[in-house]
Amino acid sequence: MTSSFLRLNADLHCHSTVSDGTLSPEALAARAKANGVELWALTDHDELGGQRAALAAARALGLPYLTGAEISVTFIGTTVHIVGLGFDIDDAALVAGLAATRGGRQQRALEMAEGLAKAGIHGTYEGALNYVSNPDLIARTHFARHLVDTGICADTHEVFRRFLTDGKPGYVPHRWASLRDAVAWITGAGGIAVIAHPGRYKLTANEEYALFSEFKGHGGSAVEVVTGSHLVSDFAKYTRTAQEFGLYASRGADFHSPQESHIDLGALPDLPASLTPVWEPLQDRVHRAS
């Protein structure tokens, strides 16, 4: 593996207005290109609706593209995200699985609004809908933007801290897909499954070991090592984890918005030199300008 291949400015995790981002797929493609990204993937939550627009925009810009999605999974009572890369967006099992995963979001949102109303904050469901292009994908981020714009909180981070995390008035857990199913949908559609931002999950050491063990057992083969929410210490930790479990390493900003995201598209440090990048086995799945 050449050092230039390892240092490829790949950004394989971001979100558009199709899920909970604030930029369109086309605007994200333009931003990625302008920021020097050399391989890009749009990974909206549980949704493939932006894939064709992202691919067309990337091709027009001469930006190599991998299909992507971020699937919500429940693992031992914790929500974990599995990114899929390089799959067939028309695969029937994947399409059906994502539709089923999206299905519970509206009821969850209504329960979140009810909890916030009990805390004296009314009209949040209707308010959150103003920030949603697809009501099937209403999420905590949309509630957070409403609470910021109505002056209840200074920023979305404050909203999550005060209202939308476990034990707070607007928090409602949701039963997502199983780890087994999410990995099977991705790999069955010809893609590679990636554990997204593992440093974010509040798992004990034993629980995290179980996550990686089961993920690998189900056919998962990569982990995000360098991502927007990871600290430098996380880079080192998940480098060791990737080596221990024999996983490819991925890299992505998890970019949602110019105003909200800590890291911009294309601004992450390189993957550690000891790892094999996830784009190596995906070379034949990259879409390039024709």
Structure description:
The structure is a single chain. The protein has 290 residues and is an alpha/beta fold. It contains eleven helices and eight strands. It has helices at 3-6, 25-34, 51-61, 92-102, 105-118, 124-129, 140-149, 156-164, 179-188, 205-217, 232-245; strands at residues 10-11, 39-41, 65-66, 68-75, 78-85, 192-195, 222-227, 248-252. α3 links the parallel β2 (39-41) and β3. α2 (25-34) runs parallel beside α3 (51-61) and α7 crosses α8. The protein is globular. The protein starts with a helix and ends in a 38-residue tail after the last strand. The model has no long low-confidence stretch (mean pLDDT 94).
Give the gist of this structure:
This protein has 290 residues and is of the alpha/beta class. Helices cover 39% and strands 13% of the residues. The chain contains 11 helices and 8 strands.
List SSEs in N-to-C order. HEHEHEEEHHHHHHEHEHE
Strand order of the largest sheet: 4-5-6-7-8
The parts where pLDDT drops under 50 for at least 5 residues are none
Number of helices: 11
Q: What is the radius of gyration?
A: 18 Å
Q: How many beta-strand elements?
A: 8
Structural class: alpha/beta
**Mean pLDDT, as a whole number?**
94
Tell me, what's the shape?
A: globular
Helix content: 25-40%
Quaternary state reads single chain
User: How much strand content do the residues show?
Assistant: 5-15%
Distance between the termini: 26 Å
Q: How does the major sheet shape up?
A: 5 strands, mixed
Topology:
Elements: H1 3-6, E1 10-11, H2 25-34, E2 39-41, H3 51-61, E3 65-66, E4 68-75, E5 78-85, H4 92-102, H5 105-118, H6 124-129, H7 140-149, H8 156-164, H9 179-188, E6 192-195, H10 205-217, E7 222-227, H11 232-245, E8 248-252
Helix pairs in contact: 2-3, 7-8
